[in-house]
Amino acid sequence: MKTICFYFEIHQPNHLKRYRFFDIGTDHYYYDDYENERQTTEAAQNSYLPALRTMLDMIHQHGKDFRVAFSISGVFLEQLEQYAPEVIDVLQQLSETGCVEFLAEPYSHGLSSLVNTECFINETKRQMRKMKELFGHTPKVLRNSSLIYNDEIGAIVANMGFKGMMVEGAKHIMGWRSPHYVYSCAQDSRLSLLMRDYKLSDDISLRFSDSSWSEYPLMADKYVGWISSLPEGEDVINIMMELSAFGIYQPLSSNILEFFRAIPDMAAKLGVKFATPSEVISKNKPVGPLEVIYPVSWNDEERDTSSMLGNGMQREAFAKLYDEKVVGRILACRNRRIQQDWDRLQATENFRFMTTKNNGMSVYRGIYDNEYDAFTNYMNILGDFLKRVHDLYSDDVENDELNSLYTQIANMAKELTVKDNEISRLRARLEKYEPKVETPASDVVTEEPTPQANKTTAPAEEKAETKPVAKKVKKSAPKTEKKPAAKTEKKSAPKAEKKPAAKAEKKPAAKTAKSKPAK
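User: That's the sequence. What structure does it adopt?
Assistant: C-alpha cells below.
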C-alpha cells in the first residue's frame, strides 16, 4: 500500500547587522533586530499560521488518517518565542492530536556535523531537550541541517540512538535505485534512511504556481494519481519541503492551501495512506545499505554542499569558525551570551549569503548587496567573537586541559542532579510520616500551657484578695523556685523582697487587731 510521509522544515535566517571593522572590540551585539522581527512576523502571518491551522483542520476532519512531521531549529524557536509565540501555540495544539511527529536537528541549523562530532552531538541534544520542553516529544528521527548526510554522519547518528534519518534522494547517490524504499546506513545498519523524492516535493514547493510549467495547473487528483501509479513495491513516498512554501515561495493567492487540503480526500479514494517518519521506519524494513561517500544536501541542482562551502571565502570563514581551539573553549565555557552568539554564527544561511554560484535563479542574500559584502561583514563579526572567546582562556591553556575542565563540570552537574533527586525522594518519604508525628505533639503543646499559665497568673490575683491564699502560694511556690534560683539570687534581692512584704502585712494586721477590743 502506498504511504505518503509529509515533512516540513521550520526555519528562518537570523540576520546580522552592519558591523564595521572599527566596531571590533567595542560592540558585542551583532544582530539586526528590526529585520529579524519583520521577517519572523511576516512569515508567521503569511505562511506559518495559515498553513498550520489548515493542517489542524485536516486532522480534525480526517482524524488519524492524516499525519505530518515537522523539524524546527533551536535558533528559530528562540525567534518565535520572542516575536510570534502564537505559532508555537498552534504547534502545541497539533502535538496534542497525536498525529504529528517532531524531528531532531542541530540547534544552530549549522554545519558542525561536517567537522566536529562533539559539537554536533551537543547541539542535537540541546534541540531535543527544547522539543521535549515545548511539545512533550522526544525525537526518534533526525533531520540534519539542509539534509546534509554521508556515511560518517550516519554512523554518528546511529550511535546517538536514533532509529532513522532524512536524506536527499539525489540522482548521483541513488543511481538506478528508487527513493521509494527504506535503506540503511552503509556503516551502521541500525540507522534507517528515508529518501526525499525531490521531484514530487519540488512540484509543490517550487513549481506549483509556475504557469510555464507543463503540468500547470496542478490539482490534487492529478498529484495523488502520480503517487498511486508508481510501480508495485515502491510504497514509501517522502515529500519534504520548507513550510514557508505555503505562502512565501507559493503565494496563498495561488490556492495552494486548498490544493493541500484536498489531498487526503483524493488519497482515500485511491487507497493511499499517510504516516510519520517513525511509523514508516517501524513498518518497513530496509531493502539494503546505501553508500554515500561525499556529503549530499537538498540545496541547488547539484544536491551537495557547494552552495555553502563552494568558494574560498566560505571555506575560510568555515575554518575560522570551527577551529579546534575555538570549539574546545566554547564547549568548556558556560557563558550564555557566548553560547547564543555561537549558535547564531553557525547557521547555514551565513555561508549561503557568500555563494558565487550562478544557478539561473535569483540568490537571496538578506541585507547584503553581494557575496563580498556578506563575507566582509561576517568576518568582522567573527573577529570580535573570536577575541571574546580567547579572552575566556589564555592561549597557554591546551585543549586537553579544557576538555578535562569540561568533563569535571559535566560530572559535577550530574552529581548535583543525582543529589537533588535523592533529596526530593527523601522529602516525599518524610511527608508520609510527618503528619502522624505532629498530631500528638500538637495535642501535648496545646494542653499543657493552659495549667501553667493558670498557676503563674493565679497567685498574683489571689495575693491582692486574701491572706490565707497568699500563705498557701508562699508555701507551694518557693519550694519549686528556691532550688534553681537559690545560688544565683542570694546576693541579689532576698532582703529587699522580705522587708516590703513584712511591712505590707503587719500594718493591715495591726489595724484589725485594735478595732476588735474597741467594740
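The beta strands are 3-10, 68-72, 100-103, 141-142, 164-168, 182-185, 192-196, 236-242, 273-274, 289-290.
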